[in-house]
UniProtKB/TrEMBL annotation:
The keyword NADP does not apply. Keywords: Kelch repeat. It comes from Ciona intestinalis. InterPro entries: Kelch-BTB_domain-containing, Kelch-typ_b-propeller, Kelch_1. This is Uncharacterized protein. It comes from the Eukaryota.
């Protein structure tokens, strides 16, 4: 289990891993950039941190990040990869089929897909609505994006993306509105 970036009286580049055998958290190499409000996914034994905000003060366009970096536990190093086309903070992300998806973000409905084999970002189909501080997970090969912050309030809406259909569709709304939540598939 890894904890990466975030905020503590300033934006963090620190990262830690929890070792259950010793019941201890241990520091690992710092990311190349400080980041909070970013996305973090794992794929085939590596971590991928992308987007976010690099400044501890009020979030602004000037502080948003488009960068992507990966951590390899075997080497203990972070490596910079190709940056996204768009700067995003408050985004969510998932890994699916050798790709990473950067979904929404503050004021954004756009989605970018990073092909891990080709080291290339491409535009993917946009969401039906902008999603800031939403959460996402993959269920049965579909990407679900849940909740959001828009118009200064939390949202009950859910969208899913079926790769075969190449479009986002609304799913049944949640009963409770939520923002800054987490989602996981069992």
């Amino acid at each position: 289990m890894f904890a990466v970036g975030g905020w503590d009286d300033g934006t963090l580049a620190t990262a830690e891993v929890y070792e259950p055998e010793s019941d201890k958290w241990e520091r690992i190499a710092h990311m190349k950039e400080q980041r909070a409000h970013h996305a973090l996914v794992s794929w085939q034994g590596r971590l991928y941190a992308f987007g976010g905000n690099s400044h501890g003060g009020p979030r602004s366009l000037l502080n948003r990040l488009s960068s992507l970096e990966t951590y390899d536990p075997k080497t203990g190093k972070w490596t910079s990869l190709k940056s996204m086309k768009e700067k995003r903070d408050g985004l969510c992300g998932v890994a699916l089929n050798d790709s990473i998806y950067a979904i929404g973000g503050n004021g954004l409905s756009s989605v970018e897909r990073y092909d891990l084999r080709m080291d290339k970002w491409t535009d993917s189909c946009s969401l039906k609505m902008s999603r800031n501080a939403a959460c996402a997970c993959v269920v049965d090969g579909k990407i679900y994006v849940i909740g959001s912050r828009g118009d200064k309030k939390a949202s009950t809406s859910v969208e899913f993306f079926d790769l075969k259909g190449d479009e986002w569709l609304f799913e049944t709304d949640m009963e409770a509105a939520r923002v800054y939540a987490s989602a996981v598939a069992l």
